[in-house]
What we know:
Residues 145-224, 232-312 form the Cytochrome c domain. By secondary structure, the chain is mainly alpha-helical.
Amino acid sequence: MNSFWSVAVTLITIGSIAAFTFLLYWCSKDKMGKEEGESMGHSFDGIEELNNGLPKWWTYMFYMTIVFALGYLVLYPGLGNYEGVLGWKSANKNVQSIAESKAAAAAEVGIVQYDVEVRAADAKYAPIFEAFADIPVEELAYNEDAVKIGRRLFLQNCSQCHGSDAGGTTGFPNLTDDKWLWGGTPEDIKHTLLEGRVAAMPAWEETLGDDGVKAVIEYVLSLSGRRGLDVKLVEQGKQKFVLCAACHGPDGTGNKVFGAPDLTDQTWLYGGSRRAIEDTIRNGRAGVMPAWKERLGEDKVHVLTSYIYRLSHPNQ
């Protein structure tokens, strides 16, 4: 935080503790001019108020909490930008990338709680993942222990886009069927997870014009067996589809090298309605699958690959 807020937080914190200390001291003194235990002169519902001070145990307990608070603020960060005597941190908050995070963890500057927990987890679980790494994906996919671990990895890292059931949603593919843009073999899936994928469908409105876009839409709809189409537009769109064939193939069945989808089936990543297809052709699409190699490591990716492979191959 900047200097202003650092000073403000420090003053508010120290001021609050000082105010509470003074209030506790003030309340522990007899200011009524009466003897201890003497009646205060009024009662309610048969209960008479007496001049009694605060219980000693209660007072000492609060003084102990104040001492604890001051000790904590000296040892740990809590006063603005002050880092504490122990140098403890919850995490390396100034890092800008995974590489910087790993470098900071390797340097072991101060006590970073997150890094301590990660090292402890790696020491405990790394041998398990190393053992799984020697088992082929096709076999590991039916190892129930590996499947349970893979499911946890999926829920933690992949479900935000693909859904907790891996059924996908608009713009994010369903991983439980047999439709794979980049290939569904264990090698293909693992490569996708390790290196990520970047797909780009260019916008064609300027190149084709409004009439050309409408014609291509009609032809694309015909590829998947739609009925009631304008035959004349379909023929015009077929001629213009040569621009699309470089990626989707001359018959529209797609190309896994480019991640270009098959246009002849009923699987549509961004929607198969006329309006959705028009938006795709006019404005293009840009899809990015992040790489998980640096974040998870190859051994964990191997287990995650087996789980994803199992989703589309439920039976051995």
